[in-house]
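So, is this right?
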Amino acid sequence: MNDNMYMLILLAMLGSALLVVSFIVLQIRNQNKVLLQKRRLQEAELFHQKALLEAMITSQEAERKRIGMDLHDEVGVVLAALRMNMEKASADSGASSFPLQSFKTAIDRVMENVRHIVHSLSPRISGSFGFYDALHELTDVVNRSGNIVVEVRFPEQQQPVFADGQHAMALYRVLAELISNTMKHASATLIKIDVTLADNRLEIEYSDNGKGMALDNRQTKGMGLHNIESRLTMIGASWQVSTVPDGGYSMHISTPLK
């Protein structure tokens, strides 16, 4: 009788333990299902956000290209015609006229500015004219301004091969925005851009000798920094910022090429 009682108690305890274990396993499985669903929703949301970001940036580039073409085709032609008329008037006068010459000089300056604007709106990054060439053109324009010096170093014999033109354009826009931010806010005299290629990745080190800022103040970042981070996110790049007040600003960018 006692043996039967012990057996019943043991079976009851084993049954209870089995129920508890089964309940725990079911809870864990349910939690895993919930976590999996959350992760899938997050991945879908990230994919959706990336698609929206790509569409927005593609639209921006198309609009910039259209505006650049309009400037080139309309404003450029008008300025060229105006300069020709100035030259004709100067020739007809039979002598060099200081007012006419000063007007021609002003028109030449405006035409040069229009060319720079057109280039910044729609840089040539295609075919044999690659990322390095576009970066050279950009920094040459900045250096000619005389306000700041931009030093660029990259392996001339190793032109990066990007997965698509959008990737190269995004990096170009990021560097242009960084240069613009430095010129507007940093009171810097020197910008350095070092580009290296390693293990099918492009590494870019951007730095200036400006006044820098506190990292916690980046919470107040404007549209410029937001655009930079959005474009880097879109191409799957990683980046790290280093800056302190009166200590300059630097950003390291690492992006896969394919």
